[in-house]
Amino acid sequence: MVKTAGRKFLELLLSIFFLSVIIFYIARLTPGDPLISYYGERVEKMSPEERERAEERLGLNSSVSNQYLRWLADAFHGEFGISYKYKMDVTEVIGERIGNTFILGGIGFLFIFGGSLLLGILCAWYEDRLPDHMICKMGTAVSCIPEFWLSLILILIFAVNLRWLPSSGAYTIGIKRSAADRILHLILPMTVVVAGHLWYYAYMIRNLILEEVRTDYVLLAKAKGLKKRRIMFRHCLRNTFPSYLSIMAVSVPHILGGTYIVETVFSYPGLGTLIYESARYKDYNLLMFLSLMSGALVILCNMAAQVLNERIDPRIKSENMGKAPEGIGL
Amino acid sequence: MSELLEVKNLSVSFSTSSGEVQAVRNVSFSLKAGEVLAVVGESGCGKSVLCKSIMKLLPSNAKIKQGSITVNGADITAYRERDMCRLRGKLFSMVFQDPMTALNPTMTVGAQIAEAVRVREPGISKTGLRDRVMQLMDLVGIDSPGERMEQYPYHFSGGMRQRSVMAIALAGNPRILFADEPTTALDVTIQAQILDLFRDIQKKLGTATVFVTHDFGVVAGVADRVAVMYAGKIVEIGTAEEIFYDARHPYTWGLMKSLPAFSKGQDTLYTIPGMPPTLVNPPKGDVFACRNEYALEIDYQEEPPMFRVTDTHYAATWLLDERAPKVVSPVGGIKV
Asked: pLDDT band for position A318 (50/70/90)?
């Protein structure tokens, strides 16, 4: 157990190392001027000497490989550099905003998790009947709407025309921070996040369950006189749950990635806007840290999915422990 | 004695993309309490569909086209899922062909048997339930049931799984047991053991059984009566003796001649030429005619009715018509 955990950790470190190399080089090889994000408009009026000095100050004057080695050495000491735009340590910049993203993404994830389970079960229960058809059709239609467009339409209806909900931000500026204000600001972005992902996972659960419904053991369960509800929940749903949990674990970064776009449209002060800005304005240190964080999240979620699966499914569990006895003959 | 199960003129069709498949066509038979009826025929003759349609376990694209099913005096032809739920497990139950897939892989075998017991006795106490599960596992010959009930199906071999499936099927003390090729997926030595088990249980509990098989050799040991099915129809039905010693239908002869025992001393085993037809558009006349070496002119024109041989023995072949030429059975009789 300790051995596999150690190996997993090593794999994680190695993946993140490769990821950091790739992002570092790609970020620096794309055209753009990182000085703009630090000095703003002033850059255009700088003399070549001033530019050189500025680049030296930010450590941008040596070769990319040298820069990377310096970054790596600092990173090992927990120093990830400053954000050019915010002129603060990147961890501080992120620390201010990560909570907002977790609220949007985390609560959104819970809604998606519960909602898709509910819809999926409903569809499977009424397979090929009206509720199933309606939910599936609606899901297909809504999934085809791009998130940014849906966001804009919702803003147009609820913020501009009806004036019920705020169109952007996480708080009303100038008002004391309150939970109610917070929730009002969350409604629209949350709706877009949930609506964008809900159907896909609901459909997945529907099909997972129906796959189980078609198996022989369901026929035997029916033949022994079990009611549909019991077969559905005790047998089919239970057997799809390991796969469902691992799918949802893998989906965490997917859903968080979805909130990035939504955050940008709603100017929601989370990591999404931050990562977008940092990539656009060459805020190298910030971009590095955010990308590595996302990467680590993807890898960790995949590992979590695997561990969950092993924990729940008795078949996988015994295979891994090497304990599955050969079928004992008659 | 009154009939426990009576099927009259039952026809079952599947609607598929290639058309309507008439899987069961105009089948009538009956089953008395405690009796074993073997249903024999090649693969794809509608044997399984017949059983599943009685228990209403067919997929939703299957429809009962005509006929009636009467169980224990009640006509269940029009019963819906909810009513069927009340009958399954208690009145009739089923053992399936493939024990490898018939058990839920993520539930312990004991729990799966217990579920079936609880269908019959919802209020049973925990210890009572455990005792009953152990008793059932003992009945079907699973050693050290206390230990094995905590295990998952993947701990069990094929034969053991089939025993578990039987324990599940018998848990509700059903009056009728449908055994859908219960030995086909097992290897030969295990087949014999499972067959013995069927016979034992049949003796102990006296459950009426419909035993589906494509192997005439299996039939001899278990059946009181035999129904031979071809292309969705029963072509011959009679007591085991009548079928084995005095078969009248050329298809029954063919099946018997295919038994390896008949080809002793010869280089090749006998086979019936050709294959059963697809049942989308069954040909006119006797469906078996084109594979039948004794086929008469009329076989291609008109379907033969069920001719009475004795009160218990009927066969659907024009050879039994008084105008037909006399043919001597090529199999005579085999020792049961």
From this structure: low
ipTM score assigned to the predicted complex? 0.85
**Phi and psi angles of residue B186, each rounded to the nearest 5 degrees, phi first:** -100, 160
Answer whether residue A295 shows pLDDT above 80: yes
Q: Is A130 exposed, middle or buried (0-12, 13-18, 19+ CB in 10 A)?
A: exposed
Q: What is the mean pLDDT of residues A228-240?
A: 90
Distance from CA of A313 to the nearest CA of B (A): 7
- Kindly report the backbone phi and psi dihedral angles of residue B216, in degrees, each rounded to the nearest multiple of 5, phi listed first: -60, -30
- Torsion angles phi and psi, residue A243, rounded to 5: -65, -40
The predicted pLDDT at position B30 comes to 92
Per the CB < 8 A criterion, the answer to whether B212 and B128 are in contact is no
pLDDT, tens digit, for every residue of A114-137?
A: 999 999 999 999 988 899 999 999
Q: Tell me if B160 and A225 make a contact (CB, 8 A cut-off).
A: no
Rg of chain B taking only CA atoms, in angstroms: 21
Mean pLDDT over A297-316 rounds to 79
Residue type, A87: K
- Nearest CB partner across the interface for B190, out of A217, A219, A330: A330
Say yes or no to pLDDT of B40 above 70: yes
Q: Which residues of B touch A321 (CB under 8 A)?
A: none
Q: Evaluate whether B67 touches B7 at the Cβ level (below 8 Å).
A: yes
Of A152, A138, A135, A187, whose CA–CA distance to A166 is shortest?
Answer: A187
pLDDT at position A319, please? Answer: 56
Give B189→chain A minimum CA distance, Å.
10
**Whether the Cβ atoms of residue B139 and residue B128 lie closer than 8 Å to each other:** no
Q: Is B117 on the interface with A (CB under 8 A)?
A: no
Cβ of residue B262 closer than 8 Å to a chain A Cβ: no
- Above 80 in pLDDT, residue A36? no
Domains of chain B with bracketed CATH? 33-53+82-320 (3.40.50.300)
Rounded to whole angstroms, the Cα distance separating A325 from A68 reads 52
**In the predicted model, is pLDDT for residue B212 greater than 50?**
yes
Q: Report the alpha-carbon distance of residue A170 to residue B281 in Å, rounded.
A: 68
B143 CA: distance to closest CA in chain A (Å) = 9
Domains of chain A: 90-321 (1.10.3720.10)
